[in-house]
Amino acid sequence: METSCASISLPWRWGTRERVEPECLACGWSGDDSQLTEDFPGWRVPAGSGSARVARSAKRGCLRCKIIVECWKRVGPDARFHHRHDVSPNVPCWELFHVPGPGDAPSSRLAGITTYEALPSGDTSSRAALMWATAQLRRCNQKHLCRPPQSSFRPSRVIDVGAFPGSQDVVVVDGKRMESPDYITLSHCWGAYAPACKTTRASLPERQSRVPWTSLPRTFQDTIALTRWLNKRYLWIDTLCILQDDVKDWLRESRRMHGVYKSSYLTIAAASAHDGRGGLFAVSPQPSKIITLLHGSLPFNIYARPLLNHIFSGTHRETNEAELPLLTRGWVFQERLLAPRVLYFTQHELVWECHEACNCECKKLQPGRTTSSEAKHEFALGRRSPAEDIPEDETSRWHTMVKEYTDLKLTEEGDILPALAGIAREVARSRSGETYLAGLWSGSLREDLMWFSHRGFSPGQQRPQRWCAPTWSWASLSPSATFFDYFWGDGTPLFHVEDASCQLVSDDVYGPVSGGRLVLRARLLKHAVAKPHRKFRRPDSQWYPEWVMECGAVELEFVPDVGLVEMGHDVGGVPTVSSLILLAGVLATRKDRLYLADPKYHLSCLVIRETRSNTYQRVGLARLQGHDPAVMKEFYQQFGEDTKVIII
After folding, report:
1. Strand partners, 525
2. Ranges of Basic and acidic residues compositional bias (predicted)?
3. pTM of the predicted structure, to 2 decimals
4. Phi-psi category of residue 61: left, alpha or beta, with phi > 0 → left and psi -120 to 50 → alpha
């Protein structure tokens, strides 16, 4: 960190709860000491006349303008500064922060400046960084219950990193030959790069003889070196431990993936590497000291650095693919959730996550205890803090996981069920007696069917070229799925499930399917017509529909599973789809207090179309919301009598 910087003395009235300076028209500061770093949009003043005003104001003595000018001197006049982690990770941004030291002024005197208890090592391969990681592992071993219990599970194959003393070379061995149950797993991005060392049916004998160090990509080499540094002998990497050209082996090993990650001693996550050539380790520049504020004789040093995209910051759910490509991948989702302990190597620092705590080198993430793997899931994906743990039933928890999972990317469309199979297998332990149905559960099937896809907001989009699941499953589409139960109170299903089944590709009930059939007893409203919303614009939120469903005088929000172009109707340049059918789904009331005295009802309906006699496909979900009981009852009476419906 730089030590030479400007010093500015704070007004003598600082901290007295009085206005310490008059309001500044150049930077917008009110003069209130508690708002020095608050209410400053983006910490950025446009260059030109705006910057000139700030510079003049700084000369006249405005404290905040002085800070801005010093920031410009260090990082340039176009820099965007922010002191909170609530901006999009895709916007280049710097942050201002303070690191306490002996004799410093209390941080409470400068509200809004982030305080970090420590700084990252700046080099994730350094001894300081690795000792920090070791300390996290030791703490977990001593104080947590995360370490997998001794079991008979062994991966089918592992990499022996200690087979050739004095040599960097490794070898692939049968898991039954492991002398210790401890092994480390690697979570990484394949990208477009296929390493020469990958194992195939033909190359397996060669890999079981010796794998030359020079044939390994950088990420694998770094992970092997780290495994040795941790004094562990065995390592599991899918590229080497699964036959990449053998479908039977791949299906068998993907089924065992649940056990591989769940039973691992530690998972190493190459979070910032786009493929095997990226490596684990990274060096980042040290923060710059921008300015020293003096409160009397006590210093308060302010530093600047590029805003870190903290994995678990919890203030935005977007993930910067450029910085953290691993966390955008669908296969990695179950690796993160199933692994009891994960050490992430990012561009800036190391991050630790286990079932009971989460921490990073700069200590922005305060170590916290969680109570279950589900809480770890919620915290890991930035939805809420463990301290704010809100009980959820199994249905809502599954919906949460599906929503987060389907926000991620898969290279192969056909992987949408296999990449979630490990989590489904784990969830099944708490859903005894239920049947897994292509991403849905028999015990909550009526609720699980009430999903919608964001793909419906993109006109012209079509279903994946490869058939993956029946149309009643969210897995039939690749984009994100959202369930309405986030917004409902108590819901009453208006249909009955008579039968539901899937045809499996293999004997793995959690794996891919080749067909599916859903038999419902429900009331239908035929001859519904879908049209663009009269404003016909992309919604600002998921509740501003782009399409509507017209049923006589009643208009419902309509979210199609696919763009309406696929349905094949275009009238005067405006897509119009007729002969659609509403299937009465769930009647619910709002759960918030606003509607306690005058409850509003919401009716959600599956939208289907007939493909052959009494056989249908799902094409979307429609919703009539915010009506009183009389209006809802009148509309519901338009539906026909209960009838048998088969959806495929």
Report:
1. 582
2. 374-387
3. 0.83
4. left
